[in-house]
Amino acid sequence: MEADDETSMYCITCGHEIHSRTAVKHMEKCFIKYEAQASFGSRHRTRIDGQSMFCDYYNPVNGTYCKRLRVMCPEHFKDPKVSDTDVCGCPLVRNVFEPTGEFCRAPKKSCLKHYQWEKLRRAEIDMERVRQWLRLDELVEQERNIRLAMASRAGVLGLMLHSTYNHEVMERITKANENGKLKEGS
After folding, report:
1. In whole angstroms, how far apart are CA 25 and each of 29, 36, 99, 170?
2. Could you give the CA distance from residue 143 to residue 30 in angstroms, rounded to a whole number?
3. 33 CB-side CA count, 13 A
């Protein structure tokens, strides 16, 4: 027996005492249980071309669509069953971020070191896609504002509505009017 098989800790979610060997699985299940109690909804369905990243399950009780990432939604999408022949396959790294080019060959059912790594990696990818969509939306809005400003830049309507005042011309007109009034009055 290894020394870490004997140690125990407390779950940060529920506070129960758990063995360190099964801590990751227990904490994941606890998180899912508490996450299911929170609602992440919108009255509008996601309209992005291609595969939907969001759950979009319709809840008829409150009339909303679930807005969790599809891969992370514990309520509406269940993880596929792991067979006895499945291999973990997690890319191995050295010094936290250096890929070694090798993969974990342990059976998926017994590999606690890389528990649900595929799900987390997929969520990272989907979040990056969401960030890119938001940035693209921001850029499209900027482009629209610039095009609108360019279209109204040198138009006649803009010149007519613009309140510029040429003091020199107005001074001459005023003097001409005064001279005209003086001649009429004499």
Report:
1. 6, 17, 25, 83
2. 45
3. 8
pLDDT in tens, 81-127: 888 889 999 999 888 888 888 999 999 888 888 888 988 898 899 89
Q: Which residues of 109-142 are buried (b: 16+ CB within 10 A; e: fewer)?
A: eebeebbebeeeebbeebeeeeeeeeeeeeeeee
Q: Smallest Cα–Cα separation from 56: which of 120, 48, 134? A: 48
Residue 67's SS3 state is: coil
**Cβ 104 vs Cβ 92: under 8 Å:** yes
Which residues 6+ apart lie within 8 Å of 164 measured at CB?
none
Res. 173: pLDDT tops 80: yes
Q: Residue type at 163?
A: S
- Residues whose CB falls within 8 Å of the CB of residue 118, separated by 6 or more in sequence, listed in order: 89, 90
| C-alpha count within 13 angstroms, C-beta hemisphere, residue 186 | 6
CA angle, 41 then 131 then 69, to 5°: 35
Side chain identity at residue 166, one-letter code: N
Say which residue the tokens 């009055």 belong to: 185
Q: Which residues contact 2 (CB under 8 A, 6 or more apart)?
A: none
Q: Which residue has the tokens 């599809």?
A: 70
